[in-house]
Amino acid sequence: MESSFSFSESEGKDPSSGGPSESKASHEGRLSTMQNVIETFRYVQAISKDKSLTVRARDKLTNRLVIIALLVGILFIGLPYIGLHQYSTIFWLVANCIFMASLVVFVSDRFGILRTLQPRYALIAWQLLFGTAVLSFMLAMTIVLVMIQIATRLFSNAG
Question: Are 92 and 77 in contact (CB under 8 A)?
Fold first, then answer.
């Protein structure tokens, strides 16, 4: 399927962004999917260490909130294995609520950045966000379906 985006010679690297160029030449010689993922992670890792970039205090706070929620979730999920199995459903629900709330705040606090981007880049970023949400949903559903299949087979063989 052809891309609906057109690349002109004038579209290239924005000197202030430090990002990779999107010229016609770079469009024709694109990296493979895996190379692209690896190079993107390297690029983000490098710019994450750039001290000249400022990050809002609220963004730092939500970063920490997600990390804390993840650790609390792991702790709560592990509690039934240390003798508190009668509370496992409650632990799971609390951990899930804390993690979900932290992720909602984390993501929603960053949506405003789309309005600061050029329309083309805002659309691409939105497509990445949407695609990631759909991918996450599909992964979660697949895991649930696999777990249901395993549980069904285990309980049908036990009887």
Answer: yes
3-state helix, strand, coil split of the chain in percent (to 5) is 75, 0, 25
Q: Measured between alpha carbons, how far apart are the two ends of the chain, in Å?
A: 52
Digit-coded pLDDT (tens) for 94-137? 888 888 888 888 888 888 889 999 999 999 999 999 999 999 99
* Cα–Cα distance measured from residue 73 to residue 98, given in angstroms and rounded to the nearest whole number: 8
pTM score, two decimals?
0.58
Contacts of range 135-143, beta carbons closer than 8 Å, 24 or more positions apart: none
Q: What one-character-per-residue DSSP string does 28-76 give?
A: HTPPPHHHHHHHHHHHHHHHHT-TTS---HHHHHHHHHHHHHHHHHHHH
3-state secondary structure of 27: helix
Judge contact between 72 and 98, C-beta under 8 A: yes
